[in-house]
Amino acid sequence: MNITLSDKMHHFQTSIFNELASYKKKKIQDGKEMIDLSVGSPDLPPAQFVIDELAKHVTRPSNYGYTLTGIEELHEAITTYYRNQYGVSLNAEKEALMVMGSQDGLVHLPMVLTNPGDIILLPDPGYTAYDTGVTLAGATVYGMPLKEENNFLPDLEAIPEKIREKAKLMILNFPGNPVPALATKQFFEQVVAFAKKHQIAVVHDFAYSELYYEQKPVSFLSIEGAKDVGVEFNSFSKSFNLAGCRIGYIVGNPTIIAGLNRLKSNLDYGVFLPIQKAAIRALENSASFSEELRAIYKKRRDILVNGLNALGWKVDAPSSSMFIWAKVPKLFTSTEFVYRLMDDAGIVVVPGNAFGDAGEGYVRIGLVQPEEVLEKAVTKLRSSTLFSTIEAINY
Ligand SMILES: Cc1ncc(COP(=O)(O)O)c(C=O)c1O
User: Fold this and answer.
1) CA of 365 relative to ligand 1 center, distance in Å
2) Res. 17 pLDDT band, cuts 50 70 90
3) CA of 327 to the centre of ligand 1 (A)
4) How far apart are alpha carbons 330 and 390 in whole angstroms?
5) What residues contact residue 356 under an 8 Å CB cut-off, 6+ apart?
6) Would you say the CB of residue 173 lies under 6 angstroms from ligand 1?
7) Among 219, 174, 189, which residue's Cα sits nearest to residue 320?
8) Are 212 and 10 in contact (CB under 8 A)?
9) How confident is the model at residue 50 (pLDDT cuts 50, 70, 90)?
10) 114 in ligand 1 pocket by Cβ < 6 Å?
11) Closest Cα to residue 252, out of 89, 54, 43, 77?
12) Which protein family is it in (predicted)?
């Protein structure tokens, strides 16, 4: 029999991450030492008290059934965390819902809120899962470019009237991946007003909420009226190094949350109870762990940013998240530069255009290796043919 895949599958091509991984593998087989700064996954362990909580519950035979959804205690812990962190008050039953990693919510929510043909406004460049959600919903993307001259915030005024009329959903992400920008309170206020005027639901992806260095990120839900128009996703993956546990949550507008809950009750059976218990412990004791985590990423950031600038590669220090969004020298496209970095210096980063057309001209560098490895990366760059001729780094 001739098996054919659906038309929808044309949208799901092999990702650039797989291409980079196989090129890196080939280089290693050829005897090259490679330093991988391309992944967006934390290399650090969770807090020991979180591991201990998980271990305790794993040994209880009664904990192996379906959980179906988030347990009440987790939803309570989420609302307490939001009250303490952001002064946001939420109803644990109706305004908070566990998801199987924020990705689960991000890819499924567009189906809950849009019909085929509706427009979804996405940041460009933006996290790749947003596109997946649009495709699953059969909706259409309108990219909102994140430009340096606008501090990498979308220009809402630049969205044409016709697009506003057909748009049903806007996705935002601050601190962002791949662009480590922060939203201001004023920007979020504009978003709430824009959403109300044009009847567009807002999803704010807050996955990097605990990774900041100078200034605490603003929760979208802390803005007056935000709960009327939208929701915020958060994740245990980056803030608590629990990426493999696949647990996150959505908070905010009860109608949107009820819709996602209804869809999910037809899709999955919840998250393993010990993981939910571990997540509760993480939220309850977040303060000191998060502070230590920020100190680690800040040191890494400073090593790499200072090292790259000393080489003549002018990069800005990110004020949040775990990425440097670095301009590519004019001589190269993003992809050319990424391959040159692999060939000449043995460093793997991601071309900015992997996250959308407006990412062309940039690369994303992850702070996902220990300090000594980042120092080595700078040394490798310094001695590479690419960086030994300063003319190459000509903006
Ligand atoms: C911006 C952003 N949102 C969401 C996610 C997905 O996180 P989770 O592990 O909670 O599914 C990621 C993962 O890299 C991300 O970078």
Assistant:
1) 16
2) confident
3) 23
4) 13
5) 122, 123, 124, 125, 126, 143
6) yes
7) 174
8) no
9) very high
10) no
11) 89
12) Belongs to the class-I pyridoxal-phosphate-dependent aminotransferase family.
